[in-house]
Amino acid sequence: MTPYDKFLKTVVDVHYFDQHASVLVALSGGVDSMTLFEWLYQAKDRLNVTLSVAHINHKQRVASDMEENLLSKKMAELGVPFYTAHYEGTFSEEKARNFRYAFFEEVMTTQHISALVTAHHSNDLIENFLIRQIRGSRLRFLTGMKPVQGFGPDEGMELIRPLLSFEKSELTATTYFEDASNSENEYLRNRVRNTYLPAFSKENPRFSENLASLSEEIGLAMTIVSDSMTDFSGAKIIELIAFNQETEALQYFILQDYLTQFPTLEVAKRQFDQLLHIIRRQGQYLHAMSAEYNFVKDQYCFYIEKRTNKIEFETSLTPFVLGEFSQIAIPDTGEIIIRKRLAGDRVVINGMHKKLRRFFIDNKIALKKRDNPLVTVDNQIYGVLDVVSTDLSKSLKHAKIKRTLYYREKR
């Protein structure tokens, strides 16, 4: 059986393209992607699909523009739509990858293409496993790439990797571009491919095979873990009672799974361990995890929120015409100031003078509300919006000479 025959049998038997009429091929121009394109082009009538091609010019080599032009010309001759984008800015492997997939998603969305196909093969699985080990990735990220997974914002869009059962030596493209930078060791992937894997293979010729087998075993183990925490998967808020009923081992993976909802949030192992410790102990917690996200824990649950999600209020001395609102009684005269809490602020609640901070703690006020604005008149605190009215305000509640401050959250 030729490599092409093996490819055709694989995609037909596994039904990769049964639900797809249009396919976008990620085409770099190297032997991997050119083989994938040639095989798909040869099989397109058998598979009943139409092909389009997406190419990224990373602008990192002198030959990049020439390669783009030649690929464009070849696709025009074959009648295959060709979409291209130019990478700009400081180059890194991660930034380039994010740029590529964002462009692929854009093309698929605008051109109504339901399947993206990439040329990842078995050698890539092994390289990725070792790279992630070197970078200290967690267990769940050592499971290898899936042949098919959801992709993009629309239901039914998929990323398909039909070459994962193929070794690089089986790829048959006769026309392709050789990237000279692949022989250089500036980037980690090249060092893994050119130096580390050959060195380990000298110690054990079956080293790559063993890595692939280990990745498969990890995948099976993670399937069991995932099946055990289906009640938590995808949840935006994790209830503490349910979380604490699980074993500590499963709690570890529940938190890992929760964090995957925030792909731009990088959580080092030390920070992860700290979060787990905070969740398991008593007390509330509010922490800025990054410039973008807060971690919040109250007495009922924990969650991660955008830091821009601060509670804001609008106030008025006359009732709002529409919608619900709350109110605080204040003196008829005196300067009204609505301000943030200051260190040492004291309030009178139920006849007791307390520091505001102690009042929050004793009454288990949610951490998010502890930054709500204070209402003061002539430097006396009459209330904290959406938290409490002080004795000063309550004494005015039925007085004839008073003002009423109306407030509600901004929508």
UniProtKB/TrEMBL annotation:
InterPro entries assigned: Lysidine-tRNA-synth_C, Rossmann-like_a/b/a_fold, TilS/TtcA_N, tRNA_Ile_lys_synt, tRNA_Ile_lys_synt_N
Domain called Lysidine-tRNA(Ile) synthetase C-terminal: residue spans: 336-394
Alphabetical UniProt keywords: ATP-binding, Cytoplasm, Ligase, Nucleotide-binding, tRNA processing
Enzyme Commission number(s) from the entry: 6.3.4.19
Recorded catalytic activity of this chain's protein: cytidine(34) in tRNA(Ile2) + L-lysine + ATP = lysidine(34) in tRNA(Ile2) + AMP + diphosphate + H(+)
Cellular localization per UniProt: Cytoplasm
Binding site for ATP: 28-33
HAMAP family, A to Z: tRNA_Ile_lys_synt
Domain text: The N-terminal region contains the highly conserved SGGXDS motif, predicted to be a P-loop motif involved in ATP binding.
Family stated for the protein in its record: Belongs to the tRNA(Ile)-lysidine synthase family.
Role, per record: Ligates lysine onto the cytidine present at position 34 of the AUA codon-specific tRNA(Ile) that contains the anticodon CAU, in an ATP-dependent manner. Cytidine is converted to lysidine, thus changing the amino acid specificity of the tRNA from methionine to isoleucine.
UniProt name for this protein: tRNA(Ile)-lysidine synthase
Organism expressing this protein natively: Pseudolactococcus carnosus
Lineage of producing organism: Bacteria, Bacillati, Bacillota, Bacilli, Lactobacillales
